[in-house]
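FIELD: query
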Amino acid sequence: GTGVNDVCGTLLPMWNKIGSQAGTDMTVAGLFAGNVDGAAFRSGWPGYAGPAGYTLVDPPAYRAGQTNYGPFVSKFRTGQCELFTGVAPAADFAAFWKQAARQGFKPKLATGAGILPFPADAAALGPLASNIAVSAWWTPNMTWLSALTGQTCPQLAAAYTAATGAPWVQSLSNYSRSEEHTSELQSHHDL
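FIELD: result
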């Protein structure tokens, strides 16, 4: 789907940059949940990774809530993977990532979707959160105006921070999605 294409198309240039700067091998570890999102990304990545010269080490999907990721880590280490990509809920990714670090698997860059959706998820990993890039559902850098309030995305983020005392979060996208739908409907005068 379009989301998969967007994410793959965004993360691949990061792999290229890290590869050129650090002399990274072109082998990527792939950890995909055994769910709809994992299946979508698993099927989408080969179309990007292969033509760009990357080899994806892709073991079978893991079960949600799994606690032993040792076989995956061993496969990635044996494959000499220096990059990582994956689609996993934050708790699953955290369990995998901590085990991977304990077992000496430390890729130069980790990329993924859904793996660290909130600041607290990254904070819980402490220093292990370094060199992880994730796709974002929403950021204050989006360019639309609210049809409901007239606020820009930066203004919406600032209002959230002022009201909560916390930094903006991606889940503001739930608001943004309703805004996008409202905008789309308003652009079709014939409805």
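FIELD: remark
The chain has a mean pLDDT of 85.
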